[in-house]
Amino acid sequence: MAEREPSTKLVRCGEESCLQISGYRDDPASIVRLNGEVVTADGGQDWQVRLPIETVRQWSAPNARTIEVSLLDPETAQVTSASTSLPIGLLGDISSLAFLEVRSP
Questions:
Q1: CA torsion sign, 34 to 23 to 49 to 77?
Q2: Where is 1: in which H helix or E strand?
Q3: Which of 3, 47, 1, 40 is nearest to 21 (CA)?
Q4: Burial group, residue 64, by CB count within 10 angstroms (0-12, 13-18, 19+)
Q5: N or C, where is the chain less crowded by C-beta within 10 Å?
Q6: How many CB atoms lie within 10 A of CB 66?
Q7: Over the stretch 6-62, which tens digit does the pLDDT of each residue have?
């Protein structure tokens, strides 16, 4: 996995936004886990997973900036893992500002 690190991006999936995680695995039978949760990955060696943002929130720590991607080789039971950055502000605080004051010098 070191040669091709996983990546993330926001995509549309129906009416809502989803996080798309893409990566590479030597063996298409390798099991993909995101933050410890087993997911079904589309594709072979080049794989991708789409998760609703709410699912990403549930599986992640508050204000997380990364997601842990692990691959389990079913033949050798070897696990490789990497952290990949989430899109900026994805799981940040979504508080609304009551007002913003800007002053010039």
A1: negative
A2: none
A3: 47
A4: middle
A5: C
A6: 14
A7: 999 999 988 888 999 999 999 999 999 999 999 999 999 999 999 999 999 999 988
Contact 54, 94 (CB under 8 A): no
Looking at the DSSP bridge assignments, the partners of residue 24 are 46
pTM of the model: 0.78
- Report the SS3 class of residue 56: helix
The one-letter amino acid at 35: N
Give the largest CA-CA distance in the chain. 66
Residue 36 near residue 52 (C-beta atoms within 8 A): no
CB atoms within 10 A of CB 78: 10
Residue 50 near residue 11, CB atoms below 8 Å: yes
Q: What is the pLDDT of residues 6-16, one digit of tens each?
A: 999 999 988 88
